[in-house]
Amino acid sequence: MAWDEEEIRRLLAAIRTGEGREENAARLFRISYPRLFSRFRQLGWSPQDSEDLTQESLLGVFRSIGAFRSEAKFETWLLQIANHAYANFLRGRSAQKRGKKREESLESVLENDPGRLGEGSVLPPRQLDGLIDRERLAKVEALVAALPEQMRTCFGLRYDHGYKYREIAVLMRISIETVKAHLHQARERLKEKLALDLGPEGEE
Amino acid sequence: MTDDRDLVVRALRRLAEAARKGQDPDAHPTVEEIIAYHAGELPEEPHQALQQHLLLCRDCPDLILALDGFARLPETGPEAAPAGMDSAWESVRRRLATEGWFEGGRSRRFRWTAPRYLLAAAALLVVACLGFFLLRPARPLRIVEQPPSGLPQWELAPTVRGGEDSAQKIGNPASEGGFILAASPEGRWGSPAYQVELLGPGDKPLWSSPWRPKSPSSPFLLEVPRGSLSPGEYLLRLSGRQGVSEPVDERRFRLAFR
Questions:
Q1: Inter-residue contact A38 to A51 (CB < 8 Å)
Q2: How confident is the model at residue B47 (pLDDT cuts 50, 70, 90)?
Q3: ipTM for the whole complex
C-alpha cells in the first residue's frame, strides 16, 4: 500500500472522530507496517523481532491517536512512538542479558570456587593487578581524574568502552572535531606528564 | 594493546568502579530520559548526570546509539507486504478491542460540530457573564430626596430605648432594584445638617454620610440597592453637627429575607 500523507491525514481524522474506526485503523496499519518493519529489518533484527517491534509501535500509535496534532507530520510522530517502543525493547533485552550474566557468573563461581561467595563478590579476580606497577597506576588514575569532565568522558568512552569517534560524538552530543580535540589533548597530557604512549590512534 | 594503553584502561576502570560504589547497578536513566537526552531536550543538570552515567554503564550508550540509528524510515517499503502483516493486525486489533478502543471514538460519546475555538470562546463568555452577575460589586447606599418610582419604601419607627427587642422587623424588603428606608422627622430634629450612620450587626459602622434636609419636615430617605445589605439587625443613627456626641435620633431595624 502506498504511503500517501493525504490519505493518512484523512484516516487519522476519521479514526479520531470515531467514523469506521476499525476499518480505517486497519488501513492505516497496512500503510505504515511495511516501512516500519523494513526499518527494523535493516537494523539487523530478526523477522520475529521486527514484527514484534512494528506491532508494538503501531499499537502505541492507536493508543495515543488523540494526542496527534493535526498540523504535525504523521511520519515524524510515528517515528517518535516507534523510537519509544524500540528503546523499551532494547532496555528489556539489556535487562535480560544482565540477569543471564549474573546467573552464569554465579553458577560458575558455585562450580569452580564456592569459597569466594563469602567475599561478597562474584567478579573474576583482576589478573592484571599483579603485573602493573601500582605506583604508576595511581599516577595515571590521578591524571585521568584531573582531566576536564567532558574530556575525561570522551577519553573513557574511547579507551575503556572502545567507541568510535562518530559514536562518541553522538553519545556526547558534540561534534567529531571536538571529540578528536579532546582525545588529542588527553593523550598529549599523558605523554607529557607520564611519558605514556598509547600507540597509534587507529581507525575512527 | 600496548602496556601503556593497558595501564590507562585499568586506570579508567578503577575510576569507574570507584564512581559506581554505593550505586544500584540496575539503576539506569528511564527510556524517556534517554530519548530526551538524544533529542537534546534534557535540562542542563540531568543532561550532565546522564553523560556521567554513560561512562559507567555498558547498556545505555548502546541504547542511545541504537536510537540514533533509527532516526528515519526507509523511503519505500518492500514490494510485497511482509508475510506476518495480517496476523500482526489481527493481534493488534484484538488487543485494541480488549481495551475498548473501537468503542472509544468521540462520535459515540459526543461529536464536536463547531470548531473548538468557538466552543471555548462561548464557554469563556458564559463564565465571564456569570462571574459579572455573581461577583459584581453592590451599588453603594445613597441618600435620595425623592424615592425612585417602583421601589418599595419602609418607614423606620423611632427606637424605643430600653424596650425589649426594640428592632423593627422588615420582612423581605427587596424588589428587583432594591428598596427605600425612610425616617420621618421627630421632636429632636431641627438641625440644618446631620451626620447619618448605618451600623450593622454588633453596631459595626457600615456606612456614613452627611445629610442636609431640604426643609425641616423633609424625611430622610436612603436607597438600599438589592444585595447591599444582608439579613440582620441594623441601626440608623442621625447626629447633629460634628462634635456633638449625643445622637439626635436612632432607628433600629432587622432585615429578614425569605
A1: no
A2: very high
A3: 0.77
CA B10/CA B115 separation, integer angstroms: 65
For residue B172, the distance in angstroms to the closest alpha carbon of chain A comes to 53
Kind and range of the H or E run holding B65: helix B60-69
The DSSP output letter for B82 is P
On chain B, the residues whose CB falls within 8 A of the CB of A129 are: 10
- Helix or strand run (H / E) with residue B204: strand B204-211
A135 touches chain B (CB under 8 A): no
Contact: A198, B4; criterion CB under 8 Å: yes
Evaluate if residue A1 carries a pLDDT over 90: no
Contact B12 A197 (CB under 8 A): no
Distance CA B108, CA B225 (A): 50
Q: Which residues of B179-214 are buried (b: 16+ CB within 10 A; e: fewer)?
A: bbbbbbbeeebebeebbbbbbeeeeeeebeeeeebe
Which candidate from A29, A43, A141 shows the least CB-CB separation from B14? A141
Instruction: Give me the residues of A, 175-204, that contact B with CB < 8 A.
Output: 190, 196-199
The continuous run of DSSP H or E covering B234 comes out as strand B232-239
pTM: 0.56
